[in-house]
Amino acid sequence: MHELAITQSILEIALRHADGAGRITQLNLVIGDLSSIVDDSVQFYWDVVSRGTIAEGSQLHFERIKTRFHCRDCQTDFEPDGRAFECPQCGGSRVSLVAGREFQLESIEVE
Ligand SMILES: [Zn+2]
């Protein structure tokens, strides 16, 4: 259900940035693979919350960011293979998350 709250905050940000524009046509969102946000349900909520605003009928465009880890033992950055989060270089498990939890509104297109 947290997609609804997220979608509402996207709308608030978009409307603030579109101040003075006639209509919002597209929103470009960046979503990390780990953020557990489902594109389809965001689009569904978007159609509901944007109704009656200048963003009504606009399209959401999602860019997925792959999960990346950084190995603190050998300083390698890597994309985890499935559920194994060990470093492919040295087999170490002292890793930190570099990317994958993003959820942000990158840009909006207006007309
Ligand atoms: Zn390593």
Notable traits:
alpha+beta; binds zinc ion; 24% helix; 3-stranded antiparallel sheet; elongated; hypothetical protein PF0899 fold; 111 residues; 6 strands
Q: How does this structure look, described?
A:
This protein has 111 residues and is of the alpha+beta class. The chain has a single domain, classed as hypothetical protein PF0899 fold (2-Layer Sandwich), CATH 3.30.2320.80. The chain has helices spanning 2-17, 39-49; strands spanning 24-32, 59-65, 68-71, 77-78, 95-99, 103-110. The strands form 2 sheets. A 3-stranded mixed sheet has the order 2-1-6, with helices on one face. The radius of gyration is 18 Å and the shape is elongated. The two termini are 31 Å apart. Bound molecules: zinc ion. Residues 71, 73-74, 76, 87, 89-90, 92 line the site of zinc ion.
Order of strands, widest sheet: 2-1-6
Q: Could you state the oligomeric state of the chains shown?
A: single chain
Number of helices: 2
Strand count, sense and closure of the main sheet?
3 strands, mixed
Q: Count all strands and give the number.
A: 6
Shape: elongated
Write the element-wise H/E pattern from the N-terminal end onward.
HEHEEEEE
Computed over alpha carbons, the radius of gyration is: 18 Å
- Note the gap between the termini: 31 Å
Parts with pLDDT < 50 across at least 5 consecutive residues:
none
- Class from secondary-structure proportions: alpha+beta
At the first level of CATH, the class is Alpha Beta
Measured as a percent range, the helix fraction is 10-25%
Structural domain count: 1
Indicate the proportion of strand residues.
25-35%
